[in-house]
Amino acid sequence: RPGEEAAPAVPRLSRQVRCFSTSVLRPFIKPVRPPVQIYGLKGRYATALYSAASKQNKLEQVAEEPLRVGQILKEPEMAASIMNPYVKCHIEVKSLNDMTAKERLEKYLAVTTVPPLDEATLAELKTVLKSFLSKGQVLKLEVKIEPSIMCGMIVRTGEKYVFKNRDSEAEQSNADF
């Protein structure tokens, strides 16, 4: 019967293909051995990281990353938020972005309005907000549209915010007199 004879040939063919494919790749794949053998689960991860980094010629960059993380964890607030299992991931990422932005002298501001801002108003707003920045700081502006606020504008930086609308401006100008 033809079906019975083909059954043993299929595994033999797959073994030959597998042997051929690995024998073709073997001369091109050079195993990378780390200079120090580390055992256990930590060793497996360290060896895999070392192997991948050395194959891509990025050993220095990979070696610097844990040092950067160590620097970040030296700040008590950051260490507490990262090590706390109850803090959500997006909060940790935001905190990390805030820290790196501070290092790069970037100031993130979120502006929330009801109608979308036209280009002229946005340019004027950027000019006004840049006047509040320290020397060397760079403004990073995020504009949001929120229909739930009736009118006006909310400018938020971190936990601080300012709400302005026509009524509050009128009240403020009356209070000045």
CA radius of gyration: 30 Å
Q: What is the share of helical residues?
A: 55-70%
- Gross geometry: elongated
Roughly what fraction of the amino acids lie in strands? 5-15%
Organism: Balaenoptera physalus
Keywords: ATP synthesis, Hydrogen ion transport, Ion transport, Membrane, Transport
GO molecular function, one term: proton-transporting ATP synthase activity, rotational mechanism
Protein name: Oligomycin sensitivity conferral protein
Descriptive notes:
- There is one protein chain.
- The chain is α+β, with helices and mostly antiparallel strands and 177 residues long.
- The chain has three domains: 44 residues, no CATH class; 31 residues; 72 residues, no CATH class.
- 57% of the residues lie in helices and 15% in strands.
- The C terminus is likely disordered.
Provide key terms for this protein.
4-stranded mixed sheet; 3 domains; disordered C terminus; elongated; 4 strands; 15% strand
Write the layout of secondary structure elements.
Layout: H1 2-25, H2 40-55, H3 59-73, H4 76-83, H5 89-103, E1 106-113, H6 119-130, E2 138-145, E3 153-157, E4 160-164, H7 166-176
Parallel strand pairs: 1-2
Antiparallel strand pairs: 1-3, 3-4
GO molecular function: proton-transporting ATP synthase activity, rotational mechanism
Family: Belongs to the ATPase delta chain family.
Keywords: ATP synthesis, Hydrogen ion transport, Ion transport, Membrane, Transport
